[in-house]
Amino acid sequence: MSKAPKWTPATKRVISVSYLIIIGLVIWYFSMVLAPLAIAVIIAYLLNPFVNHLTAHTRFGRKSNVVFVYISFLIILALIPTLAGPLIVRQMTEIDFDLQSLYQQLQQVIDYQQTLFGGIKIDLDELRPQAIENLSQAVSPLAGIAANLAVGIAGGVIWMIFILVVGFYLLLDANRFSSWVDSWIPVIYYEEFSQLGREIDGVWKAYFLGQVMLATIVGIVVAAVMTVLGIRSALLLGLVAAILELIPNWGYSISAYIGVMLVFFQGSTYLPLPNWGLAIVVAVFYFLMWQFDTNYLVPRIIGTRLKLAPAVIIVGIIAGASVGGVLGLLLAAPIIATVRVVGSYLYRRLLDLEPYVLQTSPSLARIMSEETEEAEEAEEANVNL
Hints:
Helix content is 78%, strand content 2%. By secondary structure, the protein is mainly alpha-helical. α9 crosses α14 (364-384). It is globular and about 90 Å long.
């Protein structure tokens, strides 16, 4: 036992506030490293269940399994642009807005000449030059954007190396870090904090694993339907739908808008439908797919852990994008859901409402959490041996 006097409540408050201030200053000073570090943490977090699974079901140690899983991840990461890059480029080159054909169809809709609205005559021949000029002005900045994007990609090579190296070591010591955090929890609160940790872990696993599954399913379905309808850029639309599916609630609406507009300007390669008619068919398909996604896929794959109001989602997306860019936009939903879990715990603790940690519906995350616990027990057994 230490003979030093115990800190007074005032001293504890001063130490706590000073410590928080120092942490805040360190975060602010190294803010440029936060985004790459967050990506490295996400990589380690996503790969850790695979390492735990191998550790629990094979005779190899964690270090060997980490090396195997990480090398496999790097190979897949390299194969994706190698295999998908030429296909995406070819799909983008097939995007062809036949403005002349669209103009002719528009003339047919208005009886080839003109239409009257409230006695005002509208002559399409007079509007066409102005429309073409506006379209050219909208497209002209794309070259500068592409150049800036190329410079950004070149400058991101160093950050990519940083992310991969840090991610490897985080993955290697993931369970040690978890045990270190558990050692700081008082024994009397261990069960309660373990439940809270499982709920937070479930939120993030539900988001990452669930969103990847949803994105894959939606992307495949959209690409398949667009191929059947004869859309030249069907695979590209499927890829867009898969990527935007990662944005809860609003991503699918954006992908639907892009798909309908692209079909409206391009039409089909073989269906004898006018572009506007085909666009209506595609809009109906996106609506039905959205209903199937929202009412069937999401409850079964993700559960209720990320069930947030649309208004909360859009505010969080805007705030996340303004603070953290693309990464903040993508992580807005799980961060809000985590704040909700912690806030619910604090609220019930302050009012002495039991149970303090509310259990949500099971999902894929619960299975992955149990798998992680089994792997940790197996690793501890191997160490003891």
